[in-house]
Amino acid sequence: MEQIQTSIVGLAGFATYFGISILLLLIFKLVYTLITPHDEWKLVKEGKNSAAALGLVGAVIGFSIALASAATNSVSLVDFLIWGVVALIAQTVAFAIVRFIFMPKIVQRINDNEISAGIVLCGVSIAVGLLNAACMTY
C-alpha cells in the first residue's frame, strides 16, 4: 500500500509536465506549419502527400525528443518551458537550414510529393531533435 501511495504522489507532477508537453507540442505544430510555405495539413489530408507527411512527422518527432529531454533535465516548470521554447526554435531553424542551404527547392519538391525530399526533411528534423536533446543534458 505504501508503494502505491509513493507512486501516486508523483502523479500530479506527471500530469502537469505531460499537460504542458502536449500544449507545447500543439504550439509547435501550429508554429511549424505557419513558418513552412506549404500547407502540410492540406497536402496530407486532401492530397495524400507522403512527402509532406514525412517532413511534418519528422519535425514533430524531433521536437518531441528535445522536449522529452527538457522535461527530464529541467529543475522547474519555468525551466522546462524555457527549454521547450528553445527546442521549438531549434526545430524551426532546422527547417530553415534545409530550405535555404541544403535543398533550396524543398518546398516545391514537398508540394510535388517527392518522397526523397520528405525523407531528407524528416531525417534532418529528427537529427536536430536528438542533438538538441543531448545538448540539454547540462
Rg to the nearest angstrom?
Answer: 17 Å
* Overall body shape: elongated
What's the structural domain tally? 1
Q: How many DSSP-defined strands? A: 0
Distance between the termini: 36 Å
Q: Extract low-pLDDT stretches.
A: none
State the major sheet.
Answer: none
Average per-residue pLDDT, rounded, comes to: 92
- In terms of DSSP E residues, the strand content is under 5%
Q: Number of helical segments?
A: 7
User: SSE order, as H and E?
Assistant: HHHHHHH
- Overall structural class, as computed from helix and strand content, comes to mainly alpha
How much helical structure, as a percent, in the residues?
A: over 70%
In short:
By secondary structure, the chain is mostly helical. It has one domain. The mean pLDDT is 92.
Overview of this protein structure:
By secondary structure, this protein is mostly helical. The chain has one domain (20-135). It has seven helices and no strands. It has helices spanning 2-9, 11-35, 40-45, 50-73, 77-102, 106-111, 115-135. The longest helix is centred in the middle third of the chain and has 26 residues, at 77-102. It is elongated, with a radius of gyration of 17 Å.
Question: Tags for this entry?
Answer:
single chain, 138 residues, mainly alpha, 0% strand, elongated
Topology (SSEs and partners):
Layout: H1 2-9, H2 11-35, H3 40-45, H4 50-73, H5 77-102, H6 106-111, H7 115-135
